[in-house]
Amino acid sequence: MLKGIPQILSPELLKVLCEMGHSDRLVIADGNFPAESMGKDAIVIRMDGHGVPEILDAILKVFPLDTYVDHPVSLMEVMKGDTVETPIWDEYKEIVTKNDSRGDACIGNIERFKFYDESKTAYAIIATSEKALYANIMLQKGVVVE
Amino acid sequence: MLKGIPQILSPELLKVLCEMGHSDRLVIADGNFPAESMGKDAIVIRMDGHGVPEILDAILKVFPLDTYVDHPVSLMEVMKGDTVETPIWDEYKEIVTKNDSRGDACIGNIERFKFYDESKTAYAIIATSEKALYANIMLQKGVVVE
Amino acid sequence: MLKGIPQILSPELLKVLCEMGHSDRLVIADGNFPAESMGKDAIVIRMDGHGVPEILDAILKVFPLDTYVDHPVSLMEVMKGDTVETPIWDEYKEIVTKNDSRGDACIGNIERFKFYDESKTAYAIIATSEKALYANIMLQKGVVVE
Amino acid sequence: MLKGIPQILSPELLKVLCEMGHSDRLVIADGNFPAESMGKDAIVIRMDGHGVPEILDAILKVFPLDTYVDHPVSLMEVMKGDTVETPIWDEYKEIVTKNDSRGDACIGNIERFKFYDESKTAYAIIATSEKALYANIMLQKGVVVE
Amino acid sequence: MLKGIPQILSPELLKVLCEMGHSDRLVIADGNFPAESMGKDAIVIRMDGHGVPEILDAILKVFPLDTYVDHPVSLMEVMKGDTVETPIWDEYKEIVTKNDSRGDACIGNIERFKFYDESKTAYAIIATSEKALYANIMLQKGVVVE
Amino acid sequence: MLKGIPQILSPELLKVLCEMGHSDRLVIADGNFPAESMGKDAIVIRMDGHGVPEILDAILKVFPLDTYVDHPVSLMEVMKGDTVETPIWDEYKEIVTKNDSRGDACIGNIERFKFYDESKTAYAIIATSEKALYANIMLQKGVVVE
Amino acid sequence: MLKGIPQILSPELLKVLCEMGHSDRLVIADGNFPAESMGKDAIVIRMDGHGVPEILDAILKVFPLDTYVDHPVSLMEVMKGDTVETPIWDEYKEIVTKNDSRGDACIGNIERFKFYDESKTAYAIIATSEKALYANIMLQKGVVVE
Amino acid sequence: MLKGIPQILSPELLKVLCEMGHSDRLVIADGNFPAESMGKDAIVIRMDGHGVPEILDAILKVFPLDTYVDHPVSLMEVMKGDTVETPIWDEYKEIVTKNDSRGDACIGNIERFKFYDESKTAYAIIATSEKALYANIMLQKGVVVE
Amino acid sequence: MLKGIPQILSPELLKVLCEMGHSDRLVIADGNFPAESMGKDAIVIRMDGHGVPEILDAILKVFPLDTYVDHPVSLMEVMKGDTVETPIWDEYKEIVTKNDSRGDACIGNIERFKFYDESKTAYAIIATSEKALYANIMLQKGVVVE
Amino acid sequence: MLKGIPQILSPELLKVLCEMGHSDRLVIADGNFPAESMGKDAIVIRMDGHGVPEILDAILKVFPLDTYVDHPVSLMEVMKGDTVETPIWDEYKEIVTKNDSRGDACIGNIERFKFYDESKTAYAIIATSEKALYANIMLQKGVVVE
What we know:
Ten copies of one chain form a homodecamer. With 146 residues, chain A is an alpha/beta fold. Helix content of chain A is 31%, strand content 17%. Chain A has helices spanning 11-19, 35-38, 52-62, 88-99, 112-120, and strands at 25-29, 43-46, 73-76, 107-110, 124-127, 137-140. Chain A has a six-stranded mixed sheet with strand order 2-5-1-6-3-4. The longest helix of chain A is centred in the middle third of the chain and has 12 residues, at 88-99. Chains A and F meet through α1 of A and α1 of F. Chains A, B, C, D, E, F, G, H, I, J: It comes from Ohessyouella blattaphilus.
């Protein structure tokens, strides 16, 4: 634990977030996401027992979103014909808005299989125990300016 | 995640709990415990962002306490002259009682430096973000009978 | 060993089953299957001395089958012209039926060489000493819901 | 699998049995034995799901017992005052008799804590799921002569 | 060393032979074969100081040849125009005949560069000090039945 | 780089600072300190090209000093008879005062060889290029409270 | 630290510079460059807290620039339409001129995505905390003659 | 050091030369050759401080050149238009002649970029400090006959 | 294989013999010697299928015996009361005599348990399949002079 | 190779010299020194084919000798009764004098077995092919000042 840094960020996660650079991507995956097989070329960090929102909130306190692209935050698009509700997206919008001046305008959607493909080239994948549906989220790192 | 197994138990923690045998000891440590240096000869598992009670509760669902000793659960004794309250112990007692027929009678105290010494020979140490005082707890594994 | 978890599931196997996610595949292979060469990119777990049915039964107690596909369980199709009997399939059907509400309807067949190809991309392969013919079986993991 | 070699002997176990030399010791431990902590300096081989007798029988087919000592086979002595029965010992005697001309005369007892101490310096420890009481057994390798 | 197992089979070789499955291939190479470069994706086992026949004979005692193909044993074809004699083949035929009911009918030839290509995908390559010409031999593992 | 975290703290250093617990010690060593040999049991982090003060300042922004001991900050005592000046200590005092309410009262001295001995059991040693004399400094981590 | 060698060159960096040969390339990257993901096949050296100019200056004291190509030094071209100023390039020119007789004539530009592509095949990438814009620089090693 | 073996051959080099087989290639590279990047798939052996001739001479005492090809020794062709002298080639010819009955007839030339390509698939590359121009040399191993 | 070096010396053994220095000791052990457990701190080289004499003979061709001690060659003393014959010692004497001008005068005896103790600090142990009794032999390396 | 750095210093040796600190010791050993066994806790660097003087000379160009002790350079004392000449010491004196203002006054002697003991705790040992007698030399690193 360190002063002023959210305690949910483990030493290893802190290291990974810090060594990522401009345009590197991070996936915060729900509890059923095949994180180990998708992340064969990535760093996989396990955060069993946690939901996505508390992790997202902590990460955005230290991790800048990319301002060079329109949608540095990506959600997995609801599949055609699927009538599922995605209330967790509202939580995400609130958290993003709290941490980025563009608000939820910087959140985009990616079609499901494209989301998987991009996950395979992400820098890191965080495996949570999140149970909400369509809860996977991808963040693209921005530039740290002072 | 698996059916019927608490989701806070990560794949690695499940493996460690399963490979421990009769009389091996496990420490669930609070957020300021020097888990890495105490655990140089142990397996250290990080569970940043979690408190001790939720982990203890999940572990006792699959992990039998030793019935061959009087106190398979050990707390760190309050130091002489210290007037601190330890409300978290009541939570621990409730959790243990729920999972072991002996109830809180199987919980004992260990003097602080003895606790540290025993931690150094534990099989595994779980590093949490628990903030309560005197929250470290040590469990001795019992026999699985059917 | 842990309370309430089948003892045939080794610590390592438990870890692997737990870290698999939705749509990851697992092969339980017979005693002559070339598990090491097929599994160069997979995790290979040896369970010498065991047959497939007892392992299958234990795994399905904790491992949900995929409900998003019709046949989350795959057997290797009997080759054309081969008149061999496959009595072990009846055992498999009984075990699957005991553990999945769809019963044996969720069991499909895969042509032999396709089975090999899919094995090469499985998450894990369990090498048994099963002697029955056409005894290889592949499981696709489903979603854990509570 | 190989011709004429019991199939319960895994590739790794076969390698370990073969590389052991005269006077090296092997422990076949029951399901609650703390194999990993006792075996920190040994090779630990997991055989979850198996009992001790079937393993003992297979091992003695290829592994000679030491003829230079009186008791190359050691059981853990029943503790004073303990009235437990040890029917598994009869199975052990039968298996040993079948494989060594000295019969059960080559089986001795070791006091419990001495047994633990010797386990720590064994060459290898096999972790089984054996549930019988006092089922741990230690074998000392003899000389292969033709 | 183990009872009843040829002593020329090292612990590691025994492990490799045992973990091979149906259709995996093994090359026993002569002393000048580039075993390390051909075997970059294989397991290379050094048996310096030995000839091929004594190794072949020991291996076939425990290793079944594939009965699903006509020629589970392959020799490297004499190159066109090469008038060299290959007396070591007669030794091979005798050894194979002693260990497989099909006799030398199960021995085939592979053109030189095809032999090299197949070596690159073999499961293991044994590097010997054999000096005879055209002495490389490839074995395809069969099924162990009881 | 991360928002709000001093950029001189590398990903690895951040991880190490975060995983340290209450009472673990950290040495920031000058350019001639034998960091690798003193730190055989420690984590050694190289920060070539930097002086000690800028690192100390950055670390104290996130790293709490131990409040359970009088001198969580230790300097290496000037040897008897040595008339050297230690102007860098004034910089250290200013930096510590800026970051800890006890001010420079929490800085103590340790005799030179005792300093070396304690360095050998430190959790981590940072190797700098600091050229000032008597510039080694040791920090003992405190408790993070919120 | 060594006599006559700039102290900002860490032991590991010195080793890397020394083992590079004619035509190998080195990237000194700014603080937001995705050094770890670009450098998956390269050696990544962290120099957090440093700017590029002081590192460039130290490296050129021991590292010859390639004289067989026109532009052994490459900057990342300002993107079309971007009106940013690049004052740090003047510093680079001064440093290069001080160390190479060709002066700033040996500095060329590479289009941004081509720069990224070449970075992926560089021998090493140095990750700095440089904040200036368009500050990435690539060096191609020349021949050491005496 | 060993009796009768040139002392410039290090233990590791001796091992590498010995494990090479018929047709494997070895590059002895000059001091500016990018040995590490060319040799990513090869074994790189550093012999800093040595020139090529003394190494070539020692190697040829134990290493047979391939007699199945015309030019088992390859030099890097002088580039068109380059008027450089290559006096070191005379040394090479003398050394080869001393060790191979074919004399310098077994030395061929390879165009520069082809030389680089072949280096990438060599079994090993020796990095020297040789300063002569066009001093790289490649050897193809032959058959050891007695 | 290399020219002029006995082919029974594997690449790894050659490396080990070469890197040994004055006074380092090597054990050539018989087939029942517990080479792996005795050699926990040594390099263990397996030469299954070989007897000791052919290895001893090959080694002494390149390995000088220590001339600074009386008995650089040590045999394991026959135990008191043991009436066994040791004909293999005559072979050893002949081989040593052939390779060292002192003849068999440089061969001494070491009491059995002292031999074991010295084996534990040997530089390397060679595990053979030698079946003769009292066949273990220890060599102390001498100085290479030219 | 680097500009202005002796080419006999390999990348690895340069790294080791650079990471050594004040009072760390380095042994440059002759060709028969048991460098690997003496250096089990040290870094061993092989420089086969080189004598000690050329290495000593190159090292002292970058490596300061300790000025806090009288004899930062140590030779192995000639044993009592030994009448050997040590002409190589004169070379060492000349080299040291050339590089240190104290001249050969900073060279001391250490009794043979004490030399061995100190070697075991050295930071690094360089294994050369030096053939001169009593040629081992130990250097203690000093402070780099500018």
